[in-house]
Amino acid sequence: MKMKGSTLVLLTSLVLISSGCSKKECTAESVETDIVKEAVLQKVEVSQGDTLVYIPVTAAAASSFDQTPDWAPEPNPMAPVDGDMLTRWSSDYLNEDEWISFDFGKESVVSDIIVRWERAHSRKYKILASNDASRWQEVYAEENGKSGAVETIFSPVKCRYVKIFNVEKVNEDWGISIWEAEFYGPASLNPHATVTKDAYLSKGADEAKAKEAKELLAKLVAPVVPISEKPFQKGVVYTSWMADELAVSASDIMLAYIKGTGLDTVAIMVPAYQDELNSEIIFTNDKPDGDTPTIESLKHAVEICHKLGLRVMIKPHVDPRTDEARIDIMASEKWFDSYEEFILRYARFSAENKVEIFCIGTELEATTFSAWTHRWSQLIAKVKEAYKGTLTYAANWTEYAEVPFWEDMDFIGIDAYFPLTEKDDPTREELVAAWNANADKLEEWLTAKGLTDKGIVLTEIGYPSANGANRQPWVAISNVEDQQEQADCLSAVFEALTKRSWFKGYYIWQYFPQDRWSPLGFTVKGKKAEEVINEWAKKG
Length: 540
What we know:
This protein is an alpha/beta fold and 540 residues long. It folds into 2 domains: 15-201, Galactose-binding domain-like (Jelly Rolls); 234-537, Glycosidases (TIM Barrel). Helix content is 24%, strand content 27%. It has helices spanning 23-26, 197-201, 207-220, 249-260, 295-307, 333-352, 373-386, 428-449, 483-497, 528-537, and strands at residues 15-18, 34-35, 42-43, 52-54, 59-62, 89-90, 99-117, 122-130, 135-142, 148-169, 177-186, 195-196, 233-238, 265-274, 311-320, 357-362, 390-396, 412-415, 456-461, 503-511. Strands 1, 2, 3, 4, 5, 6, 7, 8, 9, 10, 11 and 12 form a 12-stranded mixed sheet that branches. It has an 8-stranded parallel beta barrel with strand order 13-14-15-16-17-18-19-20. Helix 4 (249-260) links the parallel strand 13 (233-238) and strand 14 (265-274). The longest helix has 22 residues, at 428-449. It is elongated and about 85 Å long. The two termini are 29 Å apart.
């Protein structure tokens, strides 16, 4: 059991990234923003009908960066001006007065700005301009900000720097985040800018990635091997909290990358929500800029997986909007009515798209005891009417022994975040011993319940790349990066479990549809743990 984007938030000092600014220019920024009342910028007259041009940015600075493991983007203030809608800047979560500023390298005349906000946007903010990055003049104030692309037009001003200064966040528990910021001004007054606004907006930033994805997919086309022919599952959990991310070229490229690791199955997570632990209504947020993948993007990801020869599991998750743990969600008859509607929607989707495995729930520990067996039995019967593929349930590691409906599943799923030792730096041998002890308990339970033939698949297995990860695998408990401990923990899993006949597979938590900056998080891409996974995946 983990919490999305939770775990550990680190504070950062002011960071500046530039291309060509002097040390004096870069250090002129300060955490304080001096907004002057008097006019310090020169207003200019513009000829009617003057063509707008895109004004390039040469340097950028930001008040802070989000460093939440597995969710934060790379701490790069130039990300919003790189022409790539798959990179972004995000502040930390703690303060209201967050900002990001941009340096044009020379005086320019600006009159039009497009900010492409992420879901974590400013509700109220100011656009400031300056010639010296010290005294700032307000050129625009927004009182009702929205997510998505927001264009702001104001009287042309001559300036070298522009700052977006947050006044009020849309959610007090979030930071603010921007995909792209574009600056435009009249061509006649910006001789150094040569690309028109129309040309910039039509340039197709994803063209290179789309070409790369097409070439990769063409090389890696392969047939899907059915579960009946190859029941052992070597998989990853593929996670996105964005409406359309699963449909972008970067996701296609990542799935091709996963194919190249030797893994053969992808569990696509479908996040859904309820307002509080005891709420009775479950909902998805798959509208534009929402945090549930749309049906269209899910369908695209399934199609790409199948084209690559990768099998698919659809793995629904339900989380309270309070960020409390889903294991504590309280059930009621009305809650089950809503949950049944939600699950059947994705069971039907799985049937229509020939998904190989469907997971009927994830870590709903407070709902799977005997008092609710009748509702689970009813749900399972309806799912089996709609979907004829392989079924499982992903039980929390503290839950699996009491789940009453394993006989109705094709295999037992466990999200296996078992604590291993009480040490921060155990040896690999100690980790293997701890996993062997867990395996002995699982085997004893399987035998006692008569479930040995069902087999166990670890529907989630993962560790943060942080010191002490083995002690509480579901959360980063340290701000010290430790890739070796993450790698050793996963190596111990394979060493212990591949010798057990009832072990039928695993899903590594987690891969994202695009690279994330994750020094302490669960993702293994580019880390030592990935080498371990690749080695075991290719053993057959």
